[in-house]
Amino acid sequence: MLVADILALIDSDVSQRKLFDAAFAAKDDEQAQLLFRVADSVRLFGDKAEERHVTALVDLIANSSGDVAEAAANVHGALNLPTSGAVKLLPAPPKVQ
User: Fold this and answer.
1) CA distances, 88 to each of 13, 27, 83, 85, 91 (Å)
2) Residue 53's Cα: distance from chain center in Å?
3) 51-62 pLDDT, tens digit each
């Protein structure tokens, strides 16, 4: 995690994208921790993500739960993406009969 901490503090397209890639390759708690580092990098230096990262992020939000979903949502917020994509991820309200 120390390498991820350092990468998050480097203002570089490559560093941020490598953090994204590492986060998507990881699982469980490690994935959540890496996603929080990605969010830190985005807040510090702006959005350097490629479209594939955004697509993978939205998919991760839709298909994860717990700490990973929270961390992925944190990255989504840091990227300042339009909320229209996030609204699709909300569960449908129960039908009233």
Assistant:
1) 29, 24, 9, 6, 8
2) 8
3) 999 999 999 998
